[in-house]
Amino acid sequence: MRALNTLLLGLATTCALALPAAAQVSRCLSATPQPAGAPPNQIVQDFPAGSTAQTGWRITYGRGVAEGLYITSAEFRRSPSEPYITVLKEARLADIFAPYDPGQPRFFDLTGFNFALVPVSTVDLGACGTRVDPVVVKEIRDREMLWKNDTAGKRGQELVIWATLDASNYNYIMRYAFQDDGTITFRIGATAVNLPGHELVPHTHDGLWKIDVDLASPNNKVDVVRRLQSENSFQANFVVQPFNGGVEGYEDWVADEFTEVRITNPNVTNANGKPISYDLKPWQHGVPRHFEPFSHHDFWVTQYDPTETLYQDLPNYVSNRQPITSNDAVIWFQTSTYHIPRDEDGTYVSPNVWRGVALTMYSGFDLKPRNLFNTTPYYP
Amino acid sequence: MKRIISLPVLLALALLGPSAAAVAQTSDPAIESAFTPTAAERERAIGLPGEAIAQRGLRGNGPLYHISASLYQDKRAAAGDRMVLVTSYRYEGDLGIFSFLNLSRGTVEAVRAVPHAAVHLSAAEFELARSKAFADSQVIAQLGDYRDKVIVEAMVSHSSYERDPWFGHRVVRLLFKLPPDSYLVNPIVFVDLTTGQVLIDQVTHTNHLSRSNREITPAAAPGHTHK
User: Which among A105, A310, A349 has CB closest to B114?
Assistant: First the structure.
């Protein structure tokens, strides 16, 4: 142990000496002043932060008991001279499923409870965060290298809003990041105290997402993209096919196919004449397959219906196979972390009392623009 | 659900009516109305679905709780219309009932009934579960000296498996929080609100090795002891 401590101390010292002074100083990026009279749930952010605007987001969010934090619209503009383009009309966790490996208990941590969001604390804000309301944090962050080309490069930036659901013993961090290149990242982080009495029982935390992309119009085309390669061939290719043949249904994420879902507006093109799209890129550790039918597939697409709110009911929603091509479609997607408890989660301080917390584990996905720009953004 | 159990709090919960979800997250009503129905809207909303539920033959017999009222998005609705979802739970048939209202027009836009949907507890159900547990001698015995020190929290445990004894039941797991940040490992208490039974899980879950290499049956009941 002493040798390990010495090694760690040495490494820390070496790293501190190796970093340039500027990298050791936290610099907060500037938030864009909000328009006068804007709704209380709207946030506008231009990039680069604190400089002449090139791109920008205008978002609105919602929050509620048993709902957590969610997005009620997201609009992006490629330049200050252009109008905003609608990207999202709604994006949220429709539910969070936490089934324990022995079969019980099985918790639906959003719809099964009236869990509220935790008030923002000083530790949530860190050095640069802002409390946009009592339970929601806003941060304008450096997100490391947007691109590199030898010694040239550009650091990226993002607007992040996040909140913490107080799920009794557990906490869920719900985080949405809107990046300078038009990308949106969605994350759910599970943390806090393991289930009392089941502290050492493995379980999953499944984020059950509902995403309504309305890319410049409600009527978009939804495709599934797969990379195909045989182990007997040097060649590979990719295919783009209508999701589930163009009707409501499901598709699975296949690791060796890099499965993605693409949402395209065929009627709006960039300057190169290419239709604008967004790719849903999974950020998977694994795929949960439980007893419940909704978990038997990873992606589902339904025709828009404002009364379809329950992830559990997806098999019913798709049963009449309504067309989704050139219709208003909604994507549902599950992401998951498998939590096998470890000593870092805590310990029994007495026979009947557990003390400690599980460190945060994230799952999620990204929505990344395709042919939204005419060329590389943020390139000289 | 998280409640510090004291008489004033219980009285406050009773006055709140059917929705424990009524707790506002900011003190500014003007801002809060962007996120949740106002108190007046909630009161109106809770009163609206009853007739629509009955007209659709969904009232059934036995208890029906209107659990919560929340804003929902309908992008086809007129700008500014207040769209409210009222969530109800009917014990008969373990039925979640979801009523979609346009409060600005006073109309019920749709009613969806979903058997075995996960629906959260009303404040009244939480209090019922808590009082049943605290009336149980085994629970009291296992709590021992902690009885007056704990905060009771409730979680609805869901069953999707038709052969599970709890399938179709409203089952609540109670947690006993020891302020500020610890929980009691035992007792592991479940209250079956459908049958009124208090159950204590006697199986130990506190050994890493006890679960390895074990054959797991889907949704098997974890060894509950019926009192």
Answer: A310
Residue in B with minimal Cα distance to A107: B157
Range of the domain at A99: 27-370
Distance (Å, whole) CA B24 – CA B45:
17
A215 occurs within a structural domain: yes
User: pLDDT digit string (tens) for B129-159?
Assistant: 999 999 999 999 999 999 999 999 998 988 8
Strand partners of residue A100: A203
- Note whether B89 and B172 are within 8 A (CB): no
Test A306 with B76 for CB contact under 8 angstroms.
Answer: yes
Instruction: Give the domain CATH number at A206.
Output: 2.70.98.20
Contacts of B157 in chain A (CB under 8 A): 104-107
Residue A88 lies in a domain: yes
Residue of B nearest to A117 (CA): B25
Q: Are B108 and B48 in contact (CB under 8 A)?
A: yes
Mean pLDDT of A255-260: 96
Length of chain B: 227
Determine whether the interchain pair B206/A106 forms a contact, defined as Cβ–Cβ distance below 8 Å: no
| Per-residue pLDDT tens digits for B54-91 | 999 999 999 999 999 999 999 999 999 999 999 999 99
Q: Compute CA distances A225 → A100, A239, A299, A328, whole Å.
A: 33, 6, 12, 20
Cβ-Cβ contacts under 8 Å for B147 (sequence gap 6 or more): B140
Closest of B50, B36, B43, B47 to residue B16, by C-alpha: B43
Contacts of B225 in chain A (CB under 8 A): none
Question: Which CATH number does B19-115 carry?
Answer: 3.10.450.40
Note the pLDDT of residue B203.
67
Q: Which of A113, A292, A352 sits opposite B155 (nearest CB)?
A: A113
pLDDT digits (tens, 9 = 90+) for B145-201: 999 999 999 989 888 788 888 899 999 999 999 998 889 999 999 999 999 999 998
Beta bridge partners of residue A95, listed in sequence order: A208
Give the C-alpha distances (Å, rounded to integers) separating A221 from A240, A246, A333. Answer: 12, 9, 17
Residue A68 maps to a domain: yes
Neighbours of A256 (CB within 10 A): 10
What residues of chain B lie within 8 A of the CB of A314, using their CB?
Answer: none
